[in-house]
Write a structure and sequence with these properties.
37% of the residues lie in helices and 14% in strands. By secondary structure, it is an alpha/beta fold. It has a single domain, classed as Rhodanese-like domain (Oxidized Rhodanese, domain 1, 3-Layer(aba) Sandwich), CATH 3.40.250.10. The longest helix has 12 residues. It starts with a helix and ends in a 9-residue tail after the last helix.
């Protein structure tokens, strides 16, 4: 998934879907996709069961690497509801002028 595709999903996000930011808390507090949930990629394993309850989990980070890693971890734990932003990240979101938030 690309950042423009994530933006489209964000605009049409349903109540049983979530956007997951797997960057560090410091990166998240500096700016993120509005309404996204922050779980650093190295902690997603502990949240797998909760994340499986969502119809779709859109995962992004700064450049794509941590999002891919988080997807791989969650897939090994049985999650099948994942959509990974593997082409770009939050700086691209900002560059495209999409709405951001600093509220934690």
């Amino acid at each position: 998934m690309t950042i423009p595709e994530l933006h489209q999903a964000y605009q049409n996000l349903k109540s049983d879907e979530i956007i997951l930011d797997v960057r560090t808390p410091a990166e998240f507090s500096a700016g993120h996709v509005p309404g996204s949930k922050n779980i650093p990629f190295d902690q997603v394993m502990g949240h797998a069961e909760t994340l499986k309850k969502h119809k779709t989990v859109y995962i992004y980070c700064r450049a794509g690497g941590r999002a891919i890693t988080a997807c791989q971890i969650l897939e090994t734990l049985g999650a099948r509801n994942l959509v990974c932003v593997d082409d770009g990240g939050f700086p691209d979101w900002q560059e495209l002028g999409y709405k951001t938030s600093t509220q934690v």
